[in-house]
Write a structure and sequence with these properties.
CATH superfamily: Glycosidases
CATH topology: TIM Barrel
Radius of gyration: 21 Å
Distance between the termini: 35 Å
Structural class: alpha/beta
Number of helices: 15
Helix content: 25-40%
Number of domains: 1
CATH architecture: Alpha-Beta Barrel
Strand order of the largest sheet: 3-4-5-6-7-9-12-13
Strand content: 15-25%
Number of strands: 16
Length: about 475
């Protein structure tokens, strides 16, 4: 949480190459519902995203993940692409309803076999598999029973984690419990722009707590099932919140959003308690009686690293009488706020260039965020588990895809990561989001984040210019000088 300061949109490019530490992990990432398709094959049942996407008006153009990029059938081709990129790791998520269709009971072996084959192929190509257990695809049957606002869902998640670890623990060393629980809780249950599409502020706070509890109990289940050398972590979309001015009112607005965006997760996960100011800010909504004795101790489990997802900073102020712009604060078209207890906070579009998502390009936010995390948890290593940009990419008449804006974005943000490492932050790796153009949640197939272009009618993969750029980076472990590109 900082006040706004003048900054360049992307920052100057270094005149010399910047080498990263030996062993720095270069990877790329996807999520199951965004790429797999095969929505009803081999025992898979609907997730909340299947239901949400098939609900008219929820996803642009009525798009669904029924086919997505057909990764379920084209995984060998996609692993070969990763090998061409020279990446050392692939972060992918498991589809909970593919492994455990009802969210209860024994696993479906065909679902586990898919991930076994994928992991084996990755290892054969020298690529480390990194598994995320949950990237937003709750089995619909668990949602019908109450979903994340209900405590029982956390228990179901721990059981699922144990099943996955038993099946894949001999192949997969690195495990991430949850991806961006803020999105699951607040976009899914307060603003309703993500599945399951609920607009209940108290349910969002309950969901946040039960996601935290699910993480803690899953860490215990993973530790019990995995070899001692395994790494276990969580990935958060830690918001870099800036106040528009240094006024007390704007500073307090930033504090409120920081509590709801970040500390609702980082405080119990890393320090074993919810922040007093968060409880006070939301007291008119709930007394937090859903937090039971022993919960925060269960949540506060040792981690091997913290996964950090960053795309853009967040700029806020106190209400000033102007009409708020909800195009980038999480309201979406629902008209409901994802920020329970912070209705008086106004969000502003940061200055400078923007991506195809309308997000400001600001690598300085990533640098500042990494230094803040080092100050908060100095002994915990960090991993950039997502960073990337949506561009209006297209294949030219020759079939090539040129994406200079993506290369500039990655260069700027990797420069920020390198500067943070030089400043003493223990960053162990970087995962480019995403390997492929894919289903971008409520935006459907209208936004392209991939280093590899996907022609959706045919499924054809075309590596973009940024893919070749990233391949060189991952092989040399050095960020090129600007004049070398």
């Amino acid at each position: 949480m900082t006040t706004a300061s003048p900054h360049l949109a992307a920052g100057p490019r270094p005149a010399v190459a910047r080498s990263f530490p030996p062993g720095f992990l270069w990877g790329t990432a996807t999520a199951a519902y965004q790429v797999e398709g095969a929505a009803a094959e081999d025992g898979r049942t609907p997730s909340i995203w299947d239901t949400f996407a098939r609900t008219p008006g929820k996803v642009r153009n009525g798009d669904t993940g029924d086919i997505a990029t057909d990764h379920y059938h084209r995984w060998r081709e996609d692993v070969a692409l990763m090998a061409e990129l020279g990446v050392g790791a692939y972060r992918f998520s498991l589809s909970w309803p593919r492994i455990q269709p009802t969210g209860r009971g024994p696993a479906v072996q065909k679902g586990l076999d898919f991930y076994r084959r994928l992991a084996d192929e990755l290892l054969e190509k020298g690529i480390q598999p990194v598994v995320t257990l949950y990237h937003w695809d709750l089995p619909q049957e668990l949602e019908d029973a109450g979903g994340w606002p209900e405590r029982a869902t956390a228990g179901r998640f721990a059981e699922y984690a144990a099943l996955a670890a038993d099946a894949l623990g001999d192949r997969v060393r690195t495990w991430i419990t949850l991806n961006e629980p803020w999105c699951s809780a607040f976009l899914g249950h307060a603003s309703g722009v993500h599945a399951p599409g609920r607009t209940e502020p108290v349910a969002a706070l309950r969901a946040a707590h039960h996601l935290n509890l699910a993480h803690g109990t899953a860490v215990q289940a993973l530790r019990a099932a995995l070899p001692s050398a395994a790494d276990v972590a969580i990935t958060l979309n830690v918001h870099h919140v800036r106040a528009r001015t240094e006024s007390p009112q704007d500073t307090d607005a930033a504090r409120r959003i920081d509590a709801l965006a970040n500390r609702v997760f980082t405080a119990p996960l890393l320090h074993g308690a919810y922040p007093d100011d968060l409880l006070a800010d939301t007291a008119r909504l709930t007394d937090w009686s859903f937090v039971r004795d022993g919960d925060t101790a269960a949540i506060h489990q040792p981690l091997d690293f913290l996964g950090v997802n960053y795309y853009t900073p967040t700029l806020v102020s106190a209400a000033d009488g102007t009409e708020p712009d909800h195009s980038f604060d999480g309201h979406g078209e629902s008209g409901h706020s994802p920020w329970p207890g912070a209705d008086e906070v106004v969000f502003h579009r940061p200055p400078g260039r923007t991506t195809a998502m309308g997000w400001a390009v600001d690598p300085s936010g990533l640098y500042d965020l990494l230094l803040r995390l080092k100050g908060d948890v100095p002994d915990l290593p960090l991993m950039i588990t997502e960073n990337g940009i949506a561009c209006d990419d297209y294949a030219d008449p020759s079939g090539a895809v040129h994406d200079p804006d993506r290369i500039a974005y990655l260069h700027g943000h990797l420069t920020a990561v390198h500067r943070a490492i030089e400043a003493g932050v223990d960053v162990r790796g970087y995962f480019l989001w995403s390997l492929l153009d894919n289903f971008e949640w409520g935006h459907g197939y209208s936004k392209r984040f991939g280093a590899v272009y996907v022609d959706y009618p045919t499924g054809r993969r075309i590596p973009k210019a940024s893919a070749r750029w990233y391949a060189k980076l991952s092989r040399t472990n050095a960020l090129p000088a600007a004049d070398a590109e």
